[in-house]
Design brief:
The complex is a heterotrimer. By secondary structure, chain A is α/β, with parallel strands linked by helices. Chain A is built from 15 helices and twelve strands. In chain A, strand 11 (435-436) and strand 12 form a beta hairpin. In chain C, 17% of the residues lie in helices and 36% in strands. Chain C contains three helices and nine strands. Classes of the chains: A alpha/beta, B alpha/beta, C alpha+beta. At the A-C interface, helix 15 of A face loops of C.
Chain lengths: 507, 430, 125
Amino acid sequence: MSADAKVVEMTQDEQTEMNRGLHYEENLLWEKKRSDHPGVDLPQPAGLKSRTGVLERGDIGLPQVSEPQVVRHFVRMSTWNYSIDHGFFPLGSCTMKHNPRLNEKLARLPGFAHIHPMQPESTVQGALKLMYELQDWLAELTGLPGVCLAPAAGAQGELAGMMTIKRAHELKGQSQRKVVLAPDSAHGTNPATAVMCGYEMRTISTKLDGRLSIESFKEALYKTCDKGSDIAGMMVTNPNTCGLFETNIVEISDLLHKAGGYFYCDGANFNALIGKIRPGDFGVDVMHLNLHKTFSTPHGGGGPGSGPICTTDELAPYIPVPTVVKEGDRYALQWADSRETTLGRMKGFVGQFGMHVRALAYMMSHGADGLKQVSEDAVLNANYILSQLKDDYYVPYDGPCMHECMITDKHQKEAGVTTLDIAKGLCEYGYHPMTVYFPLVVPGTMLIEPTETESKDSIDRFITVMKGFAADVRAGDTEKFHDFPLSTPRRRCDEVKAARNPVLRWR
Amino acid sequence: MRYLPQTQASRDEMLSAIGVDSVDALFKDVPKRAFVDGLVDLPNHMGELEVERQLGAYANENMGASDGPFFLGAGAYYHHIPASVDHIIQRSEFLTAYTPYQPEIAQGTLQALFEYQTFVAQLTGQDIANASLYDGASATAEAALMAMRVTKRSKVVIGNALHPDYREVLKSYVDNFEGTVLGDGGLDDLDNETACIIIQSPDFYGAPHKYEAYRNKCDEVGALLIVVVAEIVSLGLLPAPVEADIVCGEAQSIGLPMSFGGPHLGFFACREKFVRQVPGRLCGATEDADGKRSFVLTLNTREQHIRREKATSNICTNQGLCALAFTVHMALLGEDGFKRLARLNHEAACKLADTLSAVDGVEMVNDTFFNEFTMKLSKDSREVVEALVCKGIIAGLSTDDGQHLIVAATEMSRDEDMEAFAEGLTEALA
Amino acid sequence: MPNLKFTNDHECLHVDGDVAWVGITKYAQEALGDLVFVELPDVGKQVSKGDELAVVESVKTAAEVYSPVDGEVVEANSDMEGDLDLMSKDVGDGGWIAKIKMSDAAQLEGLMDEAAYAEYLKTVD
């Protein structure tokens, strides 16, 4: 990139010219006429002599506009976004479910929003109690009693989980264990996380039927050492990224445990299990949960997430600090000085507390009975979609599926219509596309996760659109697919241009 | 069951369309032993009112910064948040959107990220910024890891009083790599095996630092200079750390409540030449099929979903909504507002320093500061903090040695709060 | 008559005395799609056969280019950083990524010639 790479400017006139109906263009803050006063009124400083010991900063180059301009700016931009509140969002493995506003309201109570993580514990008993109860709920739902809420997101929870395993091996004199197993269908974070832990990744092939077979697992387990004594653990998403439950999981985890390895379960797909099936009961030693998936905290256009981890009693001594403990009727944070076996700290302060409030509010609203219904409806909805689309799209692995179903573009591709075209067609018809081209083990995948918060009507309308696409392709009406989307705020964006000459800021 | 739209009739219809008798038939691949017998051992569902009552009661058990004089900082700061910020971030289109992987229907999030990156780059005096990281602590750890990748070296030097949480997280991250050497040190400890030196400014005790000597030494030995800023408002008064190779830290102060430690906002900015080594998401400008200006997530090949074990980080999210809150707040503040806010913070701290240093038994440790400083007390500072809690005052952070108190003042600190603090401190130290 | 050699991983070599000019084949380029970045090796780097020599990136993929021989990198095609379209040229005509001074020219024996590579492509799905 050249240092003078600049964003193409949009003037006020161009912006006005492009407005149509309810679609408003909006240029960047820096392209607006600079106001002589900002969008906040702050008191006049007294003009005290600075005691910073350094020079005072000069001009920064920030824009300046009034409050109504700021509000209009962001409201207009918001109208260019698709969201779960708009409509069906079947993004596989992402669990785009309804985000209750009660959660938002509660997280904003001053007693939660305006407390500092380093206040004396006596002044934050309510917050600690909330975290303690969340730990309890998650322990009960996973069957894994060692809970640390601190990790900031799924990927950090994953790292915390793998570091827990590493710490356990270290303290047990098993540092020679350096290999981590994961299926080829694994989410990309799994290998990236293993490497961040200093581990070596070994891939297990699942190409046969989308699931782990005992044979290929054994082959990987004993590849370099006939007892598997170089194996630190395995990383498996279950239900897996093809939307299937790993039928051999109990036997595989038994083999792994015999070899001295630990089973890390990627909890991205916990929505298929919640309230009904406990990972601790099928051999999992440690897993992370995505509060922003299963537990309805909003995705926020890409965060904040929250990725607590849950472990067996055996691994609990090693999980990160802090955790919340109950001493009599008081709640306290437990630190490394009272749990020296901990791997240490993963995140500043105590974690994404605001997400903890939301997740607990969500679970209390559903309760034991509601959460079981969540997983059942999620699985029912996905299987219904699979049953309705299986004659129109190629289904690589037979059902039943769990909470998401996989189809591919195999039938359409011959006519020149690919998964990408179908995804962009969905954008045109008012849907967010499903997850596309993931997992990588099957070409042209479309991974559809409806979640439990869709009605049958909503799902039926989606099915109609998908069937319509397949019918268009059969009828030879394929040209239009390459032009989709037409009606969105922007049409297909040139990602090659963006990557070849990156323009990452206004100047 | 208010969040579930399916009815018993619709469920039955769907089951029969699938061709199974019961939903349990769909779970046939799951081993028997993994099923919960009946329901998990938790309470059944509750109405909105009941949940609100119970959790509202928990909130009321806490003593919030809005309940009385409040002088705690140490990496999380109590600032005013304009009402428009929360209004914007609660809009469905921002709040309930996914990561903008489909740019045609996510331009709102993307343009906001582009503006966020521009704000961060401008404030830090760096060429580029990413779309945010989890928090200041993990951003610091990611910065060190990036320096190790760039220099292909494994020695990380902490150059001054780094926030203890950042220090611990840094240790957790870098210790995963065999051969890493992490320790405290000064200019003389930088050698040609050093990947980076980390300087926090203002440091944990509140003192601002200069960077020129570090820059020169880093150039000499080929190490990177990482500057950590835990209070981003300081960049409205202190000079931009243009000498640094990476500037990272915590931006919670702009637009986000303290929220008991999270979600906050890790920021990360660096020189342009390191763009392909940056962890986390990047938003870039491009054009669409009609030639209109558009924004996309770019340089994705650095990331885990493509590079897998060769990714620059395992990160697959940012703090999107927090970055939006920051962006809206920055837009409201503008150039004059941001600088004025910084000055008001500094002046509040100056007043507080004058008020408290007049108390018997208080000795200022650093006489240069931005909005936070450290005092040596004549009594155990841990006990002082507890004593002031009884008076409804959150006094600051007592250090582990019990000798010092770190206190912060912001635009929220009123004269009467400072007076109450001084009065309480006088009694506690008497 | 150019002396071209090919690998199973779709690297292409133009052999000039004891120096191999290494690039990637048309097939590889088509599989990757529009390229957006190439990470070149440092000149002077010692490489063994199978080591990562360079990385080429498209929007959606990054692919390693492996060294087909042992030797020392004597030149990297820095023009390519500014003009990725060069990649589509013949290896001997601007389409090379790096030049390697081979330490064991006998390693070339194990590589395919143009005809053999064409046959090999038929077996690749």
